[in-house]
Design a protein that fits this description.
Elements lengths: L5 H16 L3 E2 L3 E2 L2 H15 L6 E7 L8 E7 L2 E5 L5 H5 L13 E2 L2 E4 L3 H11 L7 H12 L5 H4 L8 H12 L12 H15 L2 H6 L1 E11 L2 E11 L4 E7 L4 E5 L1 H9 L3 E3 L14
Helix pairs in contact: 1-2, 7-8
């Protein structure tokens, strides 16, 4: 089995620690870019290793045809490792497997990168205490299998007909899977969005995903003198739409409807932040 050096393990620990506290939006005001995250990663690794570890990190583009994305290459004992913390902020904060630490071996300007296997990363995660036998991915997979077995729906669907199973699944994902797993710091709304979309696309069947569409809409919720970035989800079904709005207080999505959303907008407690807006029924007077 592939074994990593102590220096790689320490660098990975730096990567995990930084991922726990970084956000793609700071204080619900500033949107951080991949370049800013890469520069922070580079500086943290270099400053932590000036004396004890001979590691040199530098920022690089992703691929020659995708120079707009920036990540980090760190060199240890002549071996290079590609680090993309932008992929892993929400994943680390939710206890998911990392996707951006030494997973690519492509050449960048003649630089070949080493790959650390998933098995070795699990071993390191268990040693560091990040993974205690199970990742959140493992729990999601167990839940996916459970939700897709029809014989379980009588138990989970409260005796409702099979036709209502999809709506019950959506309620379960967005209302009951609260955003507090392993959460040590307040997550940014960008990470919240990525986490719940990950759940949505993993827990539903291919057939369900084909018949229904998830639209994520950026909104600002005003509460007194404060304004907080939030999310409105619109699930477009064949016969109706479902609506869920993220509550920072509840740490989950709360089910709502057209009338309540329209009321919030008219009261100026909800403002749309992008070109995307909900597709309300005909006759709506927004």
């Amino acid at each position: 089995m592939q074994k990593t050096t102590g220096q790689v393990m320490q660098m990975y620990n730096d990567f995990i620690t930084l991922s726990m506290i970084e956000k793609e939006d700071y204080n619900n005001k500033i949107n951080a870019t991949c370049k800013q995250h890469a520069e922070i990663t580079r500086d943290i690794i270099n400053s932590a290793n000036q004396i004890k570890r001979k590691i040199q990190a530098e920022t690089v583009g992703y691929q020659e045809d995708q120079e707009s994305h920036v990540a980090v290459i760190a060199t240890i004992d002549g071996k290079n490792y590609y680090l993309d913390i932008n992929k892993d902020l929400y994943r680390v904060q939710k206890g998911l497997k990392t996707k951006g630490f030494a997973t690519l071996d492509f050449v960048w300007n003649g630089t070949k990168c080493e790959v650390v296997s998933a098995e070795e990363l699990r071993r390191i995660d268990e040693k560091l205490g990040y993974c205690n036998g199970l990742y959140t991915d493992d729990i999601i997979e167990m839940l996916r299998k459970e939700m897709q077995q029809e014989q379980n729906w009588e138990q989970y669907n409260n005796g409702k007909p099979k036709e209502s199973a999809f709506e019950y699944k959506i309620d379960f994902i967005f209302e009951h899977l609260k955003n507090n797993i392993l959460e040590q710091n307040e997550m940014g709304i960008v990470e919240v969005n990525k986490y719940y979309k990950n759940l949505y696309y993993h827990l539903l069947t291919e057939e369900e995903l084909k018949k229904n569409k998830l639209i994520d809409i950026d909104v600002v919720i005003k509460n007194g003198d404060s304004s907080i970035k939030s999310l409105l989800y619109e699930i477009q079904m064949e016969d109706k739409n479902l609506y869920y709005i993220y509550s920072q207080q509840e740490k989950t999505f709360v089910k709502t409807d057209e009338q309540e959303i329209t009321k919030m907008q008219k009261n100026k407690t909800l403002k749309y932040e992008s070109y995307k807006m909900p597709q309300f029924s005909e006759g709506d007077t927004r």
